[in-house]
């Protein structure tokens, strides 16, 4: 399972050597071992799941530094502001604020609590990636927040014209964030 993911990372990086490749491993344990596998496959970034022990995140970050890579903490499910401070104290610079697919399926939309949390994470010094069923019309909700990355996979993949959908996202981001 991990081997196939690592192979995909290696193949993507070979095809797109100048693009950032994220190994979305959501590492929960064995941070050094699993992140090393990803970075040796030429990943630029790896994800560690928010419920992982702080030492898992630290281990992954140590390996990331060896490869001039980075670690994103994937904020899926339950996490605390105390944990967020521990991640900052450990040197973690990136988080992924993730609205779960199951929440989306249950009708949960982006709301004020999400925006408040994202602003607070940014104020703590994190580079924040936002993902989870993002639609083009959601982007203005985040205006004024220095979002590092938007992940809009399904909105682009499932569009009638994925190329045009990607262009629309790019235009909207340029208009909202300059």
Instruction: Using the coordinates shown, work out and report the CATH topology of the largest domain.
Output: TIM Barrel
Instruction: Please outline the major beta sheet.
Output: 6 strands, parallel
Task: Write down how many β-strands occur, each being a DSSP E stretch of 2 or more residues.
Answer: 6
Can you give the mean pLDDT? 97
- Cα(first) to Cα(last) distance is 40 Å
Keywords:
Aldolase_TIM, 8 helices, six-stranded parallel beta sheet, TIM Barrel, 47% helix, 6 strands
Please give a structural write-up.
With 178 residues, the chain is of the alpha/beta class. It folds into 2 domains: 76 residues, Aldolase class I (TIM Barrel); 86 residues, TIM Barrel (Alpha-Beta Barrel). It is built from 8 helices and 6 strands; from the N terminus they run H-E-H-E-H-E-H-E-H-H-E-E-H-H. It is globular and about 40 Å long. The mean pLDDT is 97.
Short description:
GO terms for molecular function: 3-dehydro-L-gulonate-6-phosphate decarboxylase activity; orotidine-5'-phosphate decarboxylase activity. With 178 residues, the protein is of the alpha/beta class.
Topology:
Layout: H1 2-15, E1 22-27, H2 31-40, E2 45-49, H3 54-66, E3 70-75, H4 81-89, E4 94-98, H5 101-105, H6 112-123, E5 127-131, E6 147-151, H7 153-157, H8 162-177
Parallel strand pairs: 1-2, 2-3, 3-4, 4-5, 5-6
Helix pairs in contact: 2-3
């Amino acid at each position: 399972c991990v081997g196939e993911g690592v192979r995909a990372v290696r193949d993507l990086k070979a095809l797109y050597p100048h693009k950032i490749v994220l190994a979305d491993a959501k590492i929960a344990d064995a941070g050094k071992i699993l992140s090393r596998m990803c970075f040796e496959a030429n990943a630029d970034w790896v994800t560690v799941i928010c419920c992982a022990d702080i030492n898992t995140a630290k281990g992954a970050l140590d390996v990331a530094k060896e490869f001039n890579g980075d670690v994103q903490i994937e904020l899926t499910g339950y996490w605390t502001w105390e944990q967020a401070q521990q991640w900052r104290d450990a040197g973690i610079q990136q988080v992924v604020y993730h609205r779960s697919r199951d929440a989306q399926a249950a009708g949960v939309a982006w709301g004020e609590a999400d925006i408040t949390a994202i602003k607070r994470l940014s104020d703590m010094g994190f580079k924040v990636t936002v993902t989870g069923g993002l639609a083009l019309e959601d982007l203005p909700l985040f205006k004024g927040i220095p979002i590092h990355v938007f992940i809009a996979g399904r909105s682009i993949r499932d569009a009638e014209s994925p190329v045009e959908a990607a262009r629309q996202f790019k235009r909207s981001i340029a208009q909202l964030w300059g």
